[in-house]
Specification:
Length: 300
């Protein structure tokens, strides 16, 4: 249980609602900012403006999946106006407090480091990222079906990057009967891809693997699908970039050449916010409980 743990939520989307509910169920003391337009009454939850005073009493601060941008702006679907995280907010937090988010930009990292506040990025954890890869893959499949005039079954589908999302993406495509080409950067990933029955190749050889593909799913957050690569793809191929913004595709050149290319970050929150929220909520409660135990031991 989280009885007595003062938890503040600032901004977010439908995923955050599930996390708030879970913390309420665990008997945390919950305050929310940036939820003015949300109809849910959340009985027992305090609705507050974002102030230093609000955070001065927080044991836990929960930010959206992408905590804030590099100017401190917080994404808040249900807020009446803009929300911005300032240094005064983090500075006001007690030194034992912890900030939780999905992934942090350099602005948030610097604020927490400067003020000696612990920062936890949930998407850095393998368990969260693997669970999150499931709605990501389902959303990518939905986009592929909506934007093509052929079946995934029998298609030649390329996946770039065999990380947590790439693996789930390729396995999902394989389950629908696609022929998989898997671009990897490590020899052990090459071996695993071969074992899975996929046609593996090293990313450095990408330009030689493009002539017959129908779909390309990129998970690598660097400019890998550049103009040179796109120029070698069939014009009727579709690119779905799953890497975090700004992605790894030259969208300007793709449009110029007539190749359909879409950036699709944050799919879990779009296609399955309830599931994605529950994933985050369960991990968050586990981590807060561990933190309480650690701090309890320190004060013995």
């Amino acid at each position: 249980m989280l009885t007595g743990v003062r938890t503040v939520f600032i901004g977010g989307d439908a995923r955050q609602i599930e996390v708030i509910r879970k913390c309420m169920e665990m008997d945390a003391s919950v305050a929310i900012a940036g939820f003015d337009k949300l109809q849910d009454s959340f009985q027992g939850v305090a609705r507050e403006p974002l102030t230093a005073e609000l955070l001065s009493g927080a044991d836990v601060l929960v930010l959206p999946v992408v905590g804030c941008d590099d100017e401190g702006r917080i994404s808040a679907l249900y807020a009446e106006g803009p929300l911005k995280l300032e240094e005064e907010h983090i500075k006001a937090m007690p030194k034992h407090a912890v900030v939780y988010t999905g992934m942090a930009k350099s602005y948030l990292r610097a604020l927490c480091e400067k003020n000696n506040i612990k920062l936890v990025e949930l998407l850095e954890r393998d368990d969260v990222a693997i669970y999150n890869s499931i709605p990501t893959a389902e959303g990518a499949l939905m986009m592929a079906i909506q934007n093509t005039d052929f079946t995934i079954h029998g298609s030649t589908s390329m996946v770039l990057g065999m990380g947590r999302t790439g693996f789930t993406m390729a396995r999902s495509l394989q389950g629908l009967g696609a022929k998989i080409k898997m671009g990897v950067r490590k020899s052990e990933h090459f071996a695993r891809a071969e074992e899975m029955g996929w046609k593996a190749f090293m990313i450095k050889d990408l330009s030689t693997q493009l002539s017959d593909i129908n779909l390309l799913f990129n998970t690598i957050p660097t400019m890998i699908v550049n103009a040179q690569i796109i120029s070698k793809m069939p014009r009727d191929a579709v690119i779905i970039d799953l890497a975090s913004a700004p992605g790894g595709c030259d969208f300007r050149y793709a449009e110029k050449r007539g190749v359909k290319a879409m950036l699709a970050p944050g799919l879990p929150g779009i296609v399955a916010p309830k599931t994605a929220g529950i994933i985050m909520a369960n991990t968050l409660v586990e981590l807060i409980s561990e933190e309480i135990k650690i701090q309890g031991e320190m004060h013995k």
